[in-house]
Amino acid sequence: MTRGVLIVCAAVLVPCLVFAKRGAPAKVEPVIDQGIRYIAPKDDGRRAYIEAWDVRTNKKLWELTVFTNRIDPKLEEDVQWVFIKALEIRDGTLMVTSERGKTYQVDLTTKAITQSELSWSPPPDAATQLNNIPEAIEKAITNGPLAKNYDVSFRLNPFYLHGDFNADGKIDVAALVKQRSTGKLGIAIIHGATNKVTILGAGTAIGNGGDDFEWMDSWQLYSKARRAGERSVPQFQGDALLVSKSEAGSALICWNGKRYAWLQQGD
User: Whole domain around residue 229: which residue ranges?
Assistant: First the structure.
């Protein structure tokens, strides 16, 4: 009997452990410029740094931290590590690319670091978005039974997503919400067939995401069609939500047939 229980527990826990760990970082080829070799060590998950070595004497000249990874204690630490993915010398400047695709320019004379500008558009103001709230969100949250406990949040753009999240063939709505009593952020999923609402975050913990999604700075729909083309992604029912934190980890929120589950994806 005991052995049977242990086997069942192992079967349940192993997938969780796998998803909570990030993969090994890719090897970064060193670059050489004017007799100096630049490398990107991978021995510190909390910071990404480079080292300069004299090619002739093989002596280390200096090291420089390019960016750091802010660690959220509520999440698994290793999935928040972001390493350097590539180095390139361009017109006397060392170009450093992170695993998240961000590029940093290092002036090799002054060692000044400049991050390349990213295209970003701020979300519309709250007053504008209040006029664009879908009817399902208004009925359930804005003017519904959840109004006394939750507000719709416009912290990210878009502030809501459509998808068949519980695989019943009906279109559901996921909206960003904030718990009134604590200010904690999260997601409300409103099922189209029943108008039943599930709160994730915003005071209700789920997986490594905890009960406050303040850490989340982007989210998007992860459709069934997209999942079908990626073998490394586990099978689940319906569409999913891909929630992310820049220069850190990401996770899928998906329906397992009974409830919404958290699948850590790392980078």
Answer: 126-266
| 3 assigned to some structural domain | no
Q: How far apart are CA 73 and CA 141, in angstroms?
A: 30
- Same domain as 153, residue 98: no
Domains: count for the chain: 2
Q: Do 61 and 108 share a domain, yes or no?
A: yes
Phi-psi region of 37 (alpha: psi -120 to 50; beta: other; left: phi over 0): beta
Please name which of 243, 232, 172 lies closest in space to residue 207, comparing C-alpha atoms. 243
pTM beyond 0.90, yes or no: no
Query: Within 13 Å, how many C-alpha atoms sit on residue 69's CB side?
Result: 28
CA 11 from chain center: how many Å? 26
Interatomic CA distance for residues 139 and 146, integer angstroms: 9
Is the model's pLDDT at 2 over the cut of 60? no
Q: What value does the mean pLDDT take over residues 54-62? A: 92
Domain co-membership, 144 together with 228: yes
Three-class SS of 120-158: CCCCCCHHHHHCCCCHHHHHHHHCCCCCCCEEECCCCCC
